[in-house]
Amino acid sequence: ASLTAAILSGYYGLPDWLGIAAALGLGLAIGLINGVFVTRTTIPSLIITIGTMFGTMGLTLGLTVMIAGSTGVSLVPDELTKMLLGQYLGGMFQVTILWWLVYIAALLWLLHISPVGNWIYALGGDKESARNAGIPTKRLTIGLFMLSG
Fold first, then answer.
1. Cα 68 from chain centroid (whole Å)
2. CA of 29: how far to CAs of 145, 147, 148, in Å?
3. How many domains is the chain partitioned into structurally?
4. Residue 17 sits in which domain range?
5. Count of CB atoms within 10 A of residue 82's CB?
């Protein structure tokens, strides 16, 4: 996904936010593929995700060579992107730590406060019991794979 942002923003010269949005969209699509395969087949999710990883790595390298002519693409971010993603706080920590903390806070809220969090715990505990309790286990599984990208 990061190479998608680099190709769109660095090679084609599109705005950085568009490259980042495309990378996040690609992560959602790959998560959707993983989730659909996990819910529709009896193959263990670890095998599916490793297989998808190898497939996307090969596809990424092949498409990068076809598009850019090499496996490396450089990207010099604009000032807004540097400010939001690349600055150091106090000369020691990157600002992405703040984004990570926001993400962790959102996940803590999702798991411990929202009703969906109870569904996630039930799904992880016993899929059959969760399904019998009326939890949409297939949709929830696909959504969780999409969230993890």
1. 24
2. 10, 10, 11
3. 1
4. 2-148
5. 13
